[in-house]
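Q: What structure does this chain adopt?
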Amino acid sequence: MNKKMDKRMLFKRILTGVLYSLMLLPILNLLMTINGLSGKFTLFFFFTLTLLSAAFIRKGWVFLIIQSGLFFIFIFTLFPPSPDDALIREWLPEMWDSGFTQWQTLLEANLTEVPVLLLMTGLFLLMSVLAYLLFRFDQPLPAFFAALVYLLILHTFTSRTVLPYLILLVGTAFSLVALSQIDIKSRWQTVSYTLLFTYTSIFLLIGLSYFSLDGLEKSQQWVETKSNAYQKELDQRGFFEWINSNATGLGFRRTGMGTGTDRLGGRLHQDFSPVFRAYTQRPNYWKVMHRTTYNGLGWNSEATDSQRTLPIPYTAWENGSLTMEQRRDMPEQEDISTIRLAWFENLSYLAYPYGWLELDFNSAEDGEVTVQLDDKNDYFTVQSEEDVPDDYLLTYDRTFPTRFDEEALRIDDGWREELAASYKEALADDASVQEMESDEIIASWFEDELQLPAGLPSRVGDLAQEITAGLEDEYEIVRAVETYLKEEGGYRYSLLDVERTPEDSDYVDHFLFESQVGYCDNFSTSMAVMLRSLGIPTRWTKGFTPGSLIENDNSDPYFLVDNSNAHSWPEVFFPSYGWVPFEPSPSFANPVTNEEDVASIRGETYSFDDDSDVMDIEDTEPEPLETEEPGGDSLEEESPDAGEGLTESDETASSADQSATERWSAVFYPAFLFIGITVSVIAVFRWHLVLWLPRFLISKDILSLKQASRLILRLYYMKHKPKPGQTVQMYMNDWKPFAPHHKQSLDHFSRLADRAYYGPVDSSQQLTDNEQSVLIEMLNMYPALPNVDARAPHQI
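A:
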């Protein structure tokens, strides 16, 4: 019998391991795929070793020693030492320093990529704990809830489809719970029937759920539509902003202005901390700096030696300061206006609109504010005394931050030849210059703005050539690349789904051809690099979008700019205007070069007027979208041949049949799914449901001793009918071979039942604690007893 029990235990552990693997391995595979991590099969291999260790090592301290050794080998396999660190004593400190650095970066919320060492360490520890709980304590639910929480987070903050994973997770979790409730000490036939019925029900439920995904699509859309209003209401009441402001700060980088741009990529979280107020009614893109050197992973941000201290007030176009008489005359000009920018915290750099003319600090005395300009990046840094107000004034040309006249940009199409000719004329005595082609002169003149890394994959330039094939006007070429990235290329904007650039890959190439998901840095860098590959001078710019217009009776209207408005975009050189900003990021609209009369900027709609400094905010209704067939042709453009022979009545009948089918599907699938879930729950937890009420009635002293004894005996009679004339004691002796560890409880119950039936028991007398304990113990052991079917038990 012991050999049979060992075989049954082995079978149960193997089946548990298989179901556990089916539950977690797809989730682990999804996690590794989303984060672009290598070592997937290594993780799966150590996952299997952990299962084997937890299944067959019963002593906890032995399991801990084995897992410690496996963890060392696991980390060593994923992060092998370099040839310079061949010794273990050199590799261990390196791993410790790497893990500690990743942990500090995580706490500072400044991650630019997935902390692989921390993630793998956490996964291994989690696998060990969950496997130990499963095999040592028969607890599959911790693993289920861990996977469930991950899927729910994934569904909430990304656009990943997690429903198929969720269905498989729930189905395998039901199977593991059912398996943990089966007593392998029962007869093999009973165990087989129970397993067959339970798993048949669960697998039918899983299959039904998968095939019902399409049928439940309308129901899901209905739920999403109804919930949108509540989500909007919570957003308007500041619920999501409250969550963000009260977050612990752990995790990846948050949106905001930073100077480190050498390596771009990785997910971002929104930070709504306010940065400054701009007292104007016209939306502007606020530039902070630009970069020129693309390194294949980002834009070089090393400090330059081109910084110089500026006089205050500082005039941009004079590269210095105007005289007092010139400054008095300037505000009298028709198109000159002034913006005041007030910083919320210490002012350390300047943000400025396109077309600005002069900078001044009205509230500061001479020497209290020092401004330095990096000529290479147009980056202004500020140092000031403690008590100096953090605000400044910018005078700008109102005619600049409006939609450009496209014809003015198209006129510049011949600028390359004119620049080359002027260059040759200025250096007429230099024979080498006279021999240079126009493209060579442009490449020399705009060396920084045309720079590309030697390792840039050729397919990036090939794509740019394909997009602009047949176009000759430089303005049209720029717009074509912008439109491709913004609308036609099929790229998706997301802050959270962004993959880090794999090793030995190019940032732009990976975005354009592999991930195709990114945020402003991906789109702006891609446009800059593709235009450079076409010979068009371009640079990459960082700054802020306009912000949110705040209007109230207590103060002048202003735009509130916070860290979530941090943005990047490319600038393209046109001689008539200099460096002109463009906007390739979906859902963003630059007021300077936006082609439409109405632009949507972070959920707000602005209407631009070229002739005034007044901005109207209008509620615009989107045009209704035409429903399209999968092939892309709208229903209104269907050819007559497609509907030939179909009369109006036939169309009406077909439509009615289709509607009826959809209605029946909408009713049938949820109802059938509900029935399947109910049956599965009953199949898995049937004894818990049946025995819950008797336990409750006994524990609350609602039943008398006689009523409780009769109820328990009726339950036991369902599995083994008593023989004629058999006493309670004799009947309970029949169960002792099947419950060798509960013989004392069976004897106690026999005496209680005899006293209840034959003794002087007061029906109003409450049960004692000992009587309640015996009765509940009889209920607890009941699910594990076999169905004897009135046959005499065999001896062990």
